[in-house]
Amino acid sequence: MTFVRFMEGIGGRSLRIAAGLVLVVVGAVLGGPWWVLAAVGLVPIAAGVFNFCLVAPFVGAPLRPHSSGA
Fold first, then answer.
1. H/E element holding 66?
2. Residue 68 falls within a domain, yes or no?
3. Reduced to 3 states, what is the DSSP secondary structure of residue 20?
């Protein structure tokens, strides 16, 4: 659950976006069948941008964190 709490914060969102960007760049640079890696990299980018964690439901947490009223 600590991991999910981290991923809900700005650090986790930044990490998801950065990891997605790395996958996209590596897939694009390698080319050929590695384009699939670039396509998969779009998932963590979207997760960071739209603030959802795909791991959370597997540990009993909601897909999207509760808003803090901000």
1. none
2. no
3. helix
In a domain, 43, yes or no: yes
Q: Which has the closest alpha carbon to 3: 62, 66, 59, 63? A: 59
Residue-range definition of the domain harbouring residue 8: 2-59
Residue 54 near residue 9, CB atoms below 8 Å: no
Tokens of residue 30, six digits: 């390698």
Q: What is the pTM of this model?
A: 0.78
Q: What is the pLDDT of residues 8-63, one digit of tens each?
A: 889 989 999 999 999 999 999 998 999 999 999 999 999 999 988 888 888 887 77
Q: Domain tally for the chain?
A: 1
In a domain, 65, yes or no: no
